[in-house]
Write a structure and sequence with these properties.
93 residues; 1 helix; rod-shaped
């Protein structure tokens, strides 16, 4: 039985109080479930982002090292050519 206003006071039946408490408990449980679901989704999104960012950094480091490898190879080839040219001009060492 719902509450009835008797002037300045309220009369509550046991059933009405139990219904209100059950609604409150169910609402709080639903809110907690929704908050947990959002937190889980955010954690999964963060994990996916971090994995993608780590993979991107790895690709960038690979490119960096390959660029250095090409640079060093080009420098080594250039120095070998200069040494050969100098050796040809001066009779070698």
């Amino acid at each position: 039985m719902p509450s009835r206003n008797q002037g300045q006071t309220w009369e509550w039946s046991v059933g009405a109080i139990e219904e209100d408490l059950n609604r409150l408990i169910e609402r709080r449980a639903r809110e907690a479930d929704e908050a947990n679901s959002r937190a889980l989704q955010q954690a999964e999104n963060a994990m996916r982002y971090n994995l993608a960012a780590r993979a991107e950094r790895r690709r960038e480091w690979i490119d960096f090292h390959r660029d250095l490898e090409r640079l060093h190879k080009n420098l080594a080839d250039e120095h070998a050519e200069k040494a050969a040219a100098l050796a040809a001009e001066g009779g070698g060492v």
